[in-house]
Amino acid sequence: xxxxxxxxxxxxxxxxxxxxxxxxxxxxxxxxxxxxxxxxxxxxxxxxxxxxxxxxxxxxxxxxxxxxxxxxxxxxxxxxxxxxxxxxxxxxxxxxxxxxxxxxxxxxxxxxxxxxxxxxxxxxxxxxxxxxxxxxxxxxxxxxxxxxxxxxxxxxxxxxxxxxxxxxxxxxxxxxxxxxxxxxxxxxxxxxxxxxxxxxxxxxxxxxxxxxxxxxxxxxxxxxxxxxxxxxxxxxxxxxxxxxxxxxxxxxxxxxxxxxxxxxxxxxxxxxxxxxxxxxxxxxxxxxxxxx
Length: 292
Known about the structure:
22% strand, 292 residues, two-stranded antiparallel sheet, alpha/beta
């Protein structure tokens, strides 16, 4: 796929030396104009085909049509990535359609290698007795948010997948860029690799939604992720190797907000103008509070 000149963006913002460009466009159209080996990291969450009520997209496609569309956009994304690029693909499911996320991952397998599977935990309970004395808890701790269901068959869904794909499965990552301190500090002196008191976070990430007062006003998109999620994905890939990041399904712009905070060049597109305008406004707000 040859590189072609991108059209004039719907909006363009600056984050230090980086440029963030936004397109009111379909993802496949933007990929076709983008060409090959241009993007270092893609962090995105496409429609899941679970009947979500988007403003401008039918989320109730026949299964075969949805998988064919998924195959087309992942193939285009694979072509757009640099040889050592990463695709971080967030997908969820429902109790009655538990295979959705795994079906998407299997489709991605046709074009890329699944290098890591990350579990995004939205809500969790930590019981005092299990946390141990060093945690300092004085009670059981229940934190996070999820959409509750009323069922005598299923548990509440408190988790989604983030599939980390790369072209060969050998893309280096910066594990301790999102590392966490050792709870037991004796490990710092016991292990040579623990000298800076950081250990690998692992593939289970607790990232809660921010508490909101009004869904329509504070989170007008029906399916979005917190900016901390793409921020951790980009850091994990390695910020020194990300010149250009992308989200072909922009939504409310969480990946763009992360790029604005990190000073990374960005391309994003969204077919719904209302969501796009909201995303651009959120990025402007992030830039207004960005140091320097």
